[in-house]
Amino acid sequence: MSEQSPSTAAESATNTLSAPLQTLARPPVVQLAVGLAFLVVATNPVSADVGDVYCDTGVETGISLVFGALAGLGLPATAFFIGRAGLSYMRAGGNPEKKNDAKQKLVMSGLGFAIIVTALVSPELVDKVGSQMGFAFSDCVKPI
Where does the sequence pass through the membrane (predicted)? Predict the structure, then answer.
């Protein structure tokens, strides 16, 4: 049996005390389940439209302006970048470095297009899921 120095004994006591704190941390799956359960319980008795307070205010106008700008500027911009990446791919010839650069630009442009389309479609999806859970958004909050 070996004797521990005072500093080693203090470190082992600290490690022993901090071990229960490490076991208290919940895994992400449990946190997600608790959050979803809270969402269902918290919104279950709500039957009124969510967002009625924003009707006929500046918020309603702001939402429509933001989504209009997203569709009006974002979609043509992604079409421009996809076309530019396609042209640079065609002009790359046999240079593999230029081809790979053009492929990367094309993938990033496609990803930007997917993000914009998802942003435009997501309010409708959230509304459909919300209506299945028992609450709905008012008509003035829906940007599309």
Answer: 63-85, 106-126
* Distance separating alpha carbons of residues 77 and 105, to the nearest angstrom: 13
DSSP per residue, 56-103: TSHHHHHHHHHHHHIIIIIHHHHHHHHHHHHHHHHTTTT-HHHHHHHH
Other CB atoms within a 10 A radius of the CB of residue 101 amount to 15
What is the rounded CA–CA span in Å between residue 136 and residue 134?
A: 7
φ, ψ for residue 4, nearest 5 deg? -95, 145
pTM for this entry: 0.54
Contact present, 50 and 140 (Cβ < 8 Å): no
Q: What is the pLDDT of residues 39-67, one digit of tens each?
A: 655 554 444 555 566 677 777 777 778 87
